[in-house]
Design a protein that fits this description.
Helices cover about 75% and strands about 5% of the residues. Helix 10 packs across helix 11. Strand 1 and strand 2 form a beta hairpin. By secondary structure, the chain is mainly alpha-helical.
Length: about 290
């Protein structure tokens, strides 16, 4: 293990935490594994690509527009499709998200082809010194954004009235409904916020790495691994689990080669799932 592996792993882990945050929100509140999560992420990257091409915006400058657009799409999908299915059976909603995933991939493929794309930014290939190690600036920015959004999400859920409502619905939606809370609206707004957060990770993905119509699948698996390791509905656990997974992956790649990049993620996921199904930090209702 070298300092370079550790620093790069932690920074990459911040990006993984950001990828998983929206998935954790939906899983914790709606009790739904959103199989279209990866497509929301990649969709954010493609929207940013369109904005940079046709409006001349920089990738970072496009983020507010991308967040609003993806958030609105998420709200409409949840409010008028998934909520009705979810209130009947969770299995129907799960299958629906899989269908949305397939449709989104087909749209991306038709609209942008299967070619690998990336987003241009002045800092995309630049580097800075962190702990005596030169790392990509994009990694540092992704880590900072992840830490900021995880902190804000945690504070909103634990310190605001809106957060209290979300936690009440997450704990027992039936009782919350009897108390007068609009469950459909809470579900839709939660899904919209999760989609918006996920779109930010998509733009950062496009800047830091690259993407194709099917890239979302691999990041969905990474997101699920982070959520399971950190504990469903545990925002702080999601952030720490992302860092841990990024660190383990970076060290494994440094020691054994790039072929172990994905394998180590799945191994850690299954080990935690078997030994501690509630996650290393335990399940919590969105706190």
């Amino acid at each position: 293990m070298t300092v370079t592996n550790v620093v790069n792993g932690i920074l990459l882990g911040g990006f993984y935490a950001l990828v998983a945050l929206g998935l954790s929100l939906v899983f914790g509140v709606l009790k739904l594994i959103n199989l279209a999560h990866g497509e929301l992420m990649v969709g954010g990257a493609y929207l940013s690509l369109l904005l940079t091409r046709h409006l001349g915006l920089g990738a970072i400058a496009s983020i507010p527009i991308v967040v609003v657009l993806v958030g609105v799409i998420g709200y409409l999908v949840q409010r008028f499709l998934l909520t009705g299915l979810l209130l009947r059976t969770a299995q129907s909603a799960l299958v629906a998200t899989f269908g949305i995933s397939l449709i989104a991939q087909a749209i991306f493929n038709q609209g942008f082809s299967a070619n690998t794309q990336s987003l241009q930014a002045s800092f995309a290939t630049g580097g800075i010194q962190v702990a005596g190690v030169r790392v990509r600036t994009a990694y540092v920015i992704a880590f900072i954004v992840a830490a900021l959004l995880c902190t804000v999400t945690h504070l909103v859920l634990t310190r605001t009235r809106a957060g209290a409502v979300v936690r009440a619905v997450a704990a027992d939606s039936s009782t919350a409904g009897l108390m007068g809370y609009n469950i459909e609206r809470v579900y839709a707004l939660t899904f919209a916020v999760a989609a918006a957060i996920t779109s930010v990770s998509g733009v950062l993905l496009g800047i830091t790495f690259s993407f194709t119509p099917t890239t979302g699948t691999s990041y969905l698996l990474v997101g699920i691994a982070v959520v399971v390791i950190g504990g469903v509905g545990n925002v702080a656990g999601t952030f720490v689990a992302g860092l841990a997974l990024g660190l383990v992956q970076s060290v494994a790649v440094g020691q054994f080669g790039g072929g172990y990049r994905d394998l180590v993620v799945y191994l850690v996921f299954f080990v935690v799932l078997v030994i501690r199904p509630s996650g290393l930090f335990g399940k919590r209702i969105m706190a």
